[in-house]
Design brief:
alpha+beta, 6 helices
């Protein structure tokens, strides 16, 4: 069982890595492109200086300076992504820390989307966020809660892509991640308009090794691990509301 749990963690790490690679690729492309442009501009600048066109050379120098600022900006962006990821991938100490739940949800939503896009170029779905700006920071183990959020979002995207295959006229796949403060609780909702879950299997989805995905696509531990992290690890609740053929909403409730 511990080996299977490890393989589930490795699978989610694989998905995360694909997302990270995609996230870093963007700023790196900017850095590389502006570096190339600057090389050409500096060659031009030398030509203008040789000809004694100091005014033109200065103009080119200003372009180079502007591009250097862009290189610096995107370099720092890549640096921030790596730092953030190292924090999430380091072995969890199990230490709870005051965490911005909106930022955590936003980050994992992007990583989930990019990870799935990297694995399957045909994958496409809309996603929306509806975050409560007044949400207080709460004490959670960020790596563990991040894993739960990533798992629920991956499931939402999986459900909408499965429904998309049915070619229903006018169907638009969408996943919505929202947060709100509910009395003394913080609530995170991951909602999709995917295939939904039948009443028959709704009771089983949090059981270890139960999966609705085809063989090889899931270990059946994602939701049971998520359930344990939320309930046993954080004293919270993980609930599901679903209608077969219409969609599913997973609700995490944690003490504020």
């Amino acid at each position: 069982q511990s080996q299977l749990i490890q393989s589930e963690k490795m699978a989610s790490l694989g998905e995360l890595t694909a997302g990270i690679a995609h996230e870093i690729q963007n700023p790196l492309n900017f850095v590389n492109n502006f570096s190339e442009v600057n090389k050409e501009l500096l060659a031009e600048m030398k030509d203008e200086m040789d000809k004694g066109n100091i005014a033109d050379a200065k103009e080119i120098a200003n372009d180079v300076i502007a591009n250097e600022e862009k290189i610096n900006h995107h370099g720092k962006r890549a640096d921030a992504i790596v730092k953030g990821m190292l924090q999430h991938s380091r072995t969890s100490t199990g230490q709870k820390e005051l965490t911005n739940i909106n930022a955590l949800c936003d980050e994992y939503l992007r990583l989930s989307y990019h990870g799935l896009r990297a694995k399957d170029k045909s994958f496409n779905a809309k996603f929306e966020t509806n975050f409560d700006p007044s949400l207080p920071k709460i004490n959670v183990v960020p790596q563990e809660m991040g894993r739960v959020i990533l798992n629920l979002i991956n499931n939402a995207f999986y459900a909408v892509s499965e429904r998309k295959k049915l070619n229903e006229p006018g169907y638009e796949p969408i996943a919505i991640v929202s947060t709100r403060k509910e009395r003394d609780k913080v609530e995170i909702k991951v909602k999709d308009n995917g295939t939904g879950i039948s009443e028959k299997i709704k009771e089983k989805i949090f059981q270890p090794f139960f999966t609705t995905k085809p063989t090889g696509s899931g270990t059946g531990l994602g939701l049971s691990l998520s359930y344990d992290i939320v309930t046993k690890g954080h004293g919270g609740e993980l609930k599901v509301e679903t209608k077969e053929g219409e969609g599913t909403t997973f609700i995490i409730q944690l003490s504020a």
